[in-house]
Write a structure and sequence with these properties.
- The chain has a domain of 100 residues.
- Helix 4 packs parallel to helix 8 and helix 6 crosses helix 7.
- It is mainly α and 161 residues long.
- The longest helix is centred in the first third of the chain and has 27 residues.
- The chain is built from nine helices and no strands.
- Helix content is 64%, strand content 0%.
Length: 161
C-alpha cells in the first residue's frame, strides 16, 4: 500500500528491491594443512619417479646402442662382437670375458628371458671359423635382438647404475 492507501503495483515493488551484496570471493588456496602435505608428497613422488626413470634409461643405454649396432651388423662375426660387448657392459667382466663355445651359449640361455635357440647358438659358436663375410641368419639376428632387449641384469649392475 502506498501513502494514499492504494495497493502498489508489482512493478513498483520490484523497483524498490535492493541488490544483495556479492559474497566474498572463494580463495583458491587450500584452507587446511592436509592439502599442502598431499602436494608435497605428490611432488616428492613425481621427483622420485623422474629420478628412477632417468636412472633406468641411463642404465639401459648399452642396450639401445647394441640394438642400433645390431641393425647395422652385416656379418655373423659383427653380431657376435655386439652380443659380447653388451654382455660385458651388463655383467661383471670376470663372469663374461672368458666364456667361449657352449659356455657362452649357456650364459646367453641363463641370462635371457627365454632359451637361446639351439640353431642360432650353433651358428654363433661357428662364427669365428666361418667366412668373415657370411651374413647372420634371420633366426640368429632375431635371437640376438630378443636377448639384447630382454636379458636380466645382475643386481650388482643395477646398483652401479
Amino acid at each position: 500500500m502506498n501513502e494514499d492507501g492504494a495497493p502498489e503495483s508489482l512493478v513498483s515493488l520490484i523497483g524498490q528491491l535492493v541488490e544483495p551484496p556479492l559474497p566474498a570471493p572463494v580463495p583458491l588456496t587450500p584452507q587446511t594443512w592436509g592439502w599442502a602435505v598431499l602436494l608435497v608428497l605428490v611432488l616428492a613422488l613425481a621427483a622420485w619417479g623422474l629420478w628412477r626413470w632417468a636412472r633406468v634409461h641411463r642404465a639401459n643405454a648399452y642396450r639401445r646402442e647394441a640394438l642400433g649396432a645390431l641393425a647395422q651388423a652385416g656379418t655373423t662375426a659383427d653380431l657376435a662382437v655386439i652380443l659380447r660387448r653388451a654382455a660385458l657392459a651388463a655383467f661383471p667382466r670376470e663372469e663374461v670375458a672368458s666364456l667361449t663355445g657352449t659356455a657362452w651359449i649357456a650364459f646367453l640361455d641363463r641370462t635371457g628371458r627365454r632359451a637361446f635357440p639351439q640353431a642360432a647358438g650353433a651358428e654363433l659358436r661357428r662364427a669365428p671359423y666361418r667366412d668373415e663375410a657370411a651374413p647372420p641368419s634371420p633366426e640368429l639376428r632375431a635371437a640376438a635382438a630378443h636377448w639384447l632387449r630382454a636379458h636380466r641384469v645382475t643386481p650388482a649392475r643395477e646398483a652401479r647404475a
